[in-house]
TrEMBL record, chain B:
It comes from the Bacteria. The keyword Phosphoprotein does not apply. The lineage of its organism: Bacteria, Bacillati, Bacillota, Bacilli, Bacillales. The chain crosses the membrane at residues 25-44, 50-71, 83-104. Signal peptide: none annotated. This is Cytochrome B6. It comes from Oceanobacillus caeni. Keywords: Cell membrane, Membrane, Transmembrane, Transmembrane helix. The keyword NAD does not apply. It is a multi-pass membrane protein. It is found in: Cell membrane. Its main location: membrane.
Amino acid sequence: MSIASTQKKGFGAILWDYLTTVDHKKIGNMYLAAGAFFFLLGGIEALIIRIQLIKPENDFISAGLYNEMITMHGTTMIFFAAMPMLLGFMNGVMPLQIGARDVAFPFLNSLGFWLFLLGGILMNLSWFFGGAPDAGWTGYAPLSTSSPGHGLDYYVMGLQLSGAGTLMGGINFLVTIVTMRGPGMTYMRMPLFTWTTFVASILILFAFPALTVGLFLLQFDRMFGSAFFDVALGGNSVIWQHLFWIFGHPEVYILILPAFGIFSEIIPTFSKKRLFGYSSMVFATFLIAFLGFMVWAHHMFTVGLGPVANSIFAVGTMAIAVPTGIKIFNWLATMWGGSIKINSAMLWALGFIPSFTIGGMTGVMLGASTADFQYHDTYFVIAHFHYVIVGGVVFGILAGLHYWWPKFFGKVLNETMGKIAFWLFFIGFHLTFFIQHFLGLMGMPRRYWVFLENQGLDTGNLISTIGAFFMAAGSIVFIINIIYTTAKGEKAANDPWGTGRTLEWAISSPAPEYNFKQLPLVRGLDPYWIEKMDGNTKMTPAEPLDDIHMPNGSILPVVISIGFFIASFGFIYQVDNKSWLIVLFAGMVIAIGSMLIRSLKDDHGHHIHKEDLEKEAD
Amino acid sequence: MTGANINKINSFKKQKQKEEMKHQVITFALMIIFTLVAFIAVGAGMNKTYVIPLILILALVQVGFQFYYFMHMKDKGHEVISSLIYGGIWIAAVTVLTFTTIIWW
């Protein structure tokens, strides 16, 4: 390491470094940290929900607060926990996997992160300023347009901010993968996680505008007296549902596809075999993305779209089981005959396969539009989507954390604690949600803050709540593991697993600022494995050692985001008092002024010189 | 490489650029003509059922020109971009189809 980075830096210097960084690895780490923070918030909200439902007619929290809890739990977990953590992985891993020194738009990347973070903070500030949003995470009109107070205004502005950030992230990844693949890295040599990043970014690009439009309409209805969703004035509240789900259904694939990608990296690595059916995996990913855009109305079967529309969307929905099935069988076939090493990362992957398959099966059940009239808005739906999102996405995130922790932070997470966390969480997860299938079939509706006794729901709910505490315990063990590893762990080798296949394992842990001193020559799928099989310990360089061009850091992304953050308060409160428009304009001046500075000021970045690179040890 | 070869390559490039320029000018002229036709169609006070489809078709062709000639989508290396654009058009079309068919009031 260079002299500068071995010196101890003060807290202020480190903070400034992170505020101004445009390094994709640091941004990735910040995404992970912020996502983990919101994950804990959402988890606490989940625990409060489960405590309220521990016994019949409980009065742990009031009905209004319960509505706020379920809304914030759902929104936080989807938008501020799961997505950012996946974006963190994409940032931290994808450029390394394709042999790139950076992402295509480092400044945009940073801006995307800060917009997401301030959006998440904005929405959670509503707890302190007169009540959180309470219309469910789907924010259905007219409930969302008529909800009193400012809760829903925070929902609109918070999601709008973070949605803009996510859109930037998606575009950045797309351009990075299209234009910055290293020498020899053809499309069909890209690791599966890179592929799923690519496809998820396409989904972000196409799905988020629908949310943006929907939120704008809702914003105008709530703040400026328009009537897009007001039936009494000639509007139509069903439009919100369509817009929300045109975004919302691809959103679940934005979440699950990167998780699939993570498992597709972990399973081959710890089976010591190449991924079975690589090209069919890529094909299945695209097919899921394509079909994912034509099934949104299966969330709306009971709205009254008519039998023809319902049938079309039902068939489309069931068709998605085919590519997903391809993937499941490919993972199983990858393990078949492999020399399997079961560690924490692999445990999460193994736990994922049956859990997710159960979720997929109930998905097909829900996709049968006639049967859905029975399941709709019951705990059966809750059980289904927690099986796919926790059993798929959260397991994927935790597996990925174990797998890539050394590449991000230079230390291997403790295995014993990892396994304890897995078993606690895994058992807790099934305890919590499996029973909810039956609660739903018995008729327990979702979103109700109490249930009556002696309706056969008491025991099931008690078991479910106990399960939630197991999951909390698992999460706590995981956090202790992180603290322990940070304090005590030893520095990890380049390839701590010994069986790494992709490019990120060919460089030091954590990766140096410039990723690759010399860009590696990619000679096929799983390039590092190919080199290992040829007896090489390092990648063959594709270029001579030369100066490396790096982008300069900038504080502007933070300033722009803060500007929009301030303006959001102006939007929210100008309804009460027009003098808040001053805040709106002040925020906009800050944001647009900083954008102007960014546009007018040339910044050509800097070079890391050849001589300095030569001095560094490998 | 010999001087003659370089000359050949240069003249080939020049030829290409000349052709490219010709295409640009032709499409530009066509686009102006299309715009004039659209204005005249409206100004002449023709039947609505005739004018609206005409304008829409002209607009569609203009968008095509814009993408393929001015923004170079016809050139090599634009496969990903064009598939993304068509993907976006497809999703927008499905959305419009939904909004015009199953949202009923």
